[in-house]
Amino acid sequence: MALRNVLYLAVLPIVRLPKRGPLSFLNAFTKIGTPGGIQNFGNPVDNPVEQVLTLFPIRELATEFFEEEAYEYLRDFQAVADKYLRGGHVIDYEYGLEKTDDGRFVVQVIQNVK
User: Fold this and answer.
1) How many CB atoms lie within 10 A of CB 73?
2) Which residues pair with 53 in a beta bridge?
3) How far, in Å, CA of 4 to CA of 79, rounded?
4) Which of these, 42, 37, 50, 54, lies nearest to 18 by C-alpha position?
5) What are the tens digits of pLDDT across the range 17-53?
6) N or C: which terminus of the chain carries fewer CB neighbours within 10 A?
7) Do the bridges between strand 3-15 and strand 90-99 make them parallel or antiparallel, or are there none, so unpaired?
8) What does R_g of the chain's alpha carbons equal in angstroms?
9) pTM of the predicted model, to two decimals?
């Protein structure tokens, strides 16, 4: 019989700051809120911004999605998890959605282990 780890999906924004000196990150943030200043903020050479998917064992840390987003993020995570996050003690995954009180959804990921 497999054991189960109940986990919850979260989307974390990552902002990488350029390395140009001890306080150079201040220059990047002065671009925000100025007309045209944000245009180069997400430039991959200068300051890439990305999202990272991760799992938490605590539901309160999960991202709450609108329904269409929940299905998109679930599909994206499932494609990676089923291919790359199996092996060792991890047998497979099961996925589900939990509806919140305000009508959004939390993605539940059940990791089956042996």
Assistant:
1) 19
2) 11
3) 20
4) 42
5) 666 666 555 555 555 444 444 444 445 555 578 889 9
6) N
7) unpaired
8) 18
9) 0.73
